[in-house]
Each structure stands twice: as structure tokens, then as C-alpha cells.
# Entry
Amino acid sequence: MITTLHIKNIGIIDDLIIDLNKGLNVLTGETGAGKTLIVDSLNIIAGGRFSKDMIRKGQNVSFVELCLYLPNNPNAIDGNIIVSREINNSGKNLCKINGRLVTVNELKSFMKNIIDIHGQNDNQTLMDTEKHTKYLDKFIGDEILAEYNNYINLYKQYKELNEKLKANYGDDREKQRKLDLLEYQYKEIKCASLKIGEDEKLEEKRKIIMNSEKVAQSLNTVVNNLEGTAIDVINDSIKALEKIEDVDSKYEQKLIELKNIYYEVQELSRDICDMQGDTYFDEQERDDIETRLDTIYSLKRKYGNTIEEILQYKDDLESEINRIENLDEENKKIKCQIEEITNKMNNLCEKITILRKEKAIELNDLINNELSQLEMKNAKFNAKVIEDNEFNINGKSHVEFLIRTNIGEEEKKLNKIASGGEMSRIMLAIKTVLSNIDEVPVLIFDEIDTGISGKAANSVGIKLRKIAKNHQVLIVTHLATIAAKGEHNYYIYKEVNDNKTNTKIKLLNEEETIKEIARIASGEVTQVAISHAKELRNKYVA
# Structure
């Protein structure tokens, strides 16, 4: 249940805190006081759409926060969950669940199992066709539970076996296609006769060949310089020093050093001459290297980043080919198991579908009776059981809730009903019948009293009280008859301070509740109106 609702900067709401209670919470007040803004705020915190126009004039940020008491929820801390959503006028959202940042979609997914809003902006689990089958099955109860549980256990085995068969290439054509592909890949790698490290050696050779002309020219220049100018110059210098080596020992020492340089230059010249012999350009060899490298690169693109990885992939291919070629016996056993399980599932699905069709008639009668009491005598609800061709999580049938609101019209899905008040009453009828099995704890109704009065309004109030035994219910109403059924009545009003209008709320005591019922019933609080309000209160409060 919602224990506290905090709203800030939404429309004419400045900063509003509402403490809510179990059972039926009734919100009343003058037109334009902000009742719908409260429902809109609940829709926002439930992950609904938000318009920047809703931010209070002069403010940059709006904020909605809920404190929920859900002792059985795994997200609860000491039974409590704090949910908040902050939106600024740039459109940025900041959503949190117990202080943890979440996306709007995560917030919506979490809140859809906690709050159902029936009105102009709907966030209703009953609109979700995927849940309709579960609603009918819960309505049927234990009678279908055992059959369904048996089916689910078989369905899990059925899916696992089919996945295993698929992994084992149980389909002969698929198996052959896979084998052809694997054998092609294996042959392609094997025929390449790859050797570890050959790509690096080929790259090295390719580099040399591609640069052979430049290398030859450079080496030739070096040899010519060394054997010509450099050695001749050094030789002339040696002869010059030999003439003066006896004059001083320092000249003798320099002569020795220069001779060493001469020998080193001669050795260097011979080495580079040898290198000249290693440089060559063979166009055919270059083409062969390019072709081989292209083959290796092609295999790398398909089978691995290195030759080692490609060769490992070849080994894996060989193992997989051997495995597939020896799967026939195993697949034969799996197919027999699938056939056996399929027969059992078909029998269970037939029983489940028959039960659903039988009980759908009972559910339809109950809901249509509720609709009649809500002055929708021409409306016809239909929990339609639709048979499926394939097995799925629901069996081989599923349920869709359809409605026809007027005689002569076609049945439509619930979310195709246009009128907010009409939709609310339809939802109320469904919720009344399913209240004991509906697990959504908080129900919010807005516009439910549109176009009704008298007997229908009384029936609405009775049904709301019935639902409120198992759920927390919030309703915005303009009808005294419905307000008289409230267990907790709140008065919404507005005040003007410093030229600003602010929405306020007050939890009414019994005397104040009587006066509010009188105001709603007659437009002013007179003794006659109070007397009538007391009569309504005494008559309808259980």
C-alpha cells in the first residue's frame, strides 16, 4: 500500500504531502482544486508520460515521491520501498527505487505490479493481454493448477530437448548444410598447408624485394664513396704522417690510430660489397609471395587472427565434423522423447483449453452481471479463449478480454474503449469479480462516476468497498453516494498566498466527512443536506 505521497511543483501543487491509509480512500473537493493533479502525479511516479507544461510556473524541477509498504516485496527494506521521480524543464528524468537510480522503463516495469490507475491516464495490468490468461487461470483455481503445472514441467523438457536436437542438427537438411560448410572450411584450411611463423618470414622477404632497387642504389653509393674518395684520402693522410712520425711520439700515435681507421673502413667496404650481392629483384618470386600472403590474410579474416588460431580452428572443425557424423543414434532417442512428451502435452492442453472455455462462460456471466448493476446493461464482456497452433507458455490456447459496450457493435479489446468513465466502470466490474486473485495492491479510480447517479452510484460505492477489503483503493469522486462509502475521506482545496494558488489536502474526521458529503449532495451545507448526508453515511457504511 501507499503510506505517503509527496508531490512538489506539479501544476498548482507547491509542496504537498498526503498520508494514505488501508481500505477505501476517497478524494473530494471543488472543481479545479487539484484532484486530477494528484492522480496525474501518481501516473508520473508509475512511469507515465510527463509534459513540461505540468511543472509549476516559475519552477525548474518537479518531484513525486512514494513511500510504499510492501512487506513481501524483495526490494523492500523493513517492508518499505521509497520510489521517486524528478523531472526538470529540459525533460531530464531522475528516477530512483530505494535510492538506486533506474531508467523510466525500469520504474514503469516495477510500478505496473503495484499500482493500477483507471482514468484518463491509464497504467493498468488488465490492459495487458499477456496477463489475461493468468487472470482466467487464477479464477479457475486449483482445478486447472495441477494440469497447468504438469504441462509447464513437460513444456520445459520439450523446449530443452528441441534445443538439444537443434544443437545436434536433428534436421537432416540442416545437418547436411552444416556438414558441407564445416567440410568446406576444413578443406580450405588444410589445402593451405600453413606453417607457424611463415607469414612473418614472407612479410620480411616481401619488404626486401619491394625495396631492393632503393637498397642497391644506396649500397652502391656507400661502396663507391668508401673505396674511392674515403680510402684514398685516408691513405694519403697516412703517407703524410709517416714523414713526421720520428719528429714526435704524438705524431706516431696518431699515425697508428689513422691506420686502424683505414683497416676498419676497408673491412666495412668489403661487408657492404657482400650485402650488394644479397640484393636482387625477382618479379616471379614477388608475385608468389603476394599470392601466398593474400591466401593467409583471407584465412585470417575468416578463421583467426594468427596462423596458430587458424590451425586450432581446423582441429576444432575436424572434431565437430566427427561429432555430427556420429549423432544419428542420439538424435533418434531425442526425437522419440519429444514425440512422447508431445502426446502428453497435447492431452493436457486439451483438458486446459476445455476448462478455460467452460470457466470463461462463468467469468463472463459474473462480470456482465456486475456491469448491469453499474448501469451498463448493454455492455457484454467476453473472456475469449483462442486456440493456438503451437505450444507456448500458456499451453495451446490463450485468453483475450474483449468488450462490447453497445448493442450492435463489434467486440473490442479493452484498450480500444474511448470513454474514461466507461472504462473505469468496466475495470471496476472486472476488479470486483477478480478482487480475490488480483495481486496488484493499489487501485486508483478517476472519472468512475462520469454519467452515473442513483442506483448505479450506490452500486459503484458498494463494489469499491468490496475491492478495498483486499486492496488499497483511491478514488476521486463528485458523487455524495460514493463519498459516503469512504473509509478515509480527504478534502482537496486551494489557497491563495502571495498571489500564488496552492493545492492543500486535509484528512476529514467523521463530522467533517458528513459536511463534505452534504456539500457534494446539495452544493451547500444546510441542516437538510447534513441530515441527508448522515442518512447516506449510516446506510452505506458497513
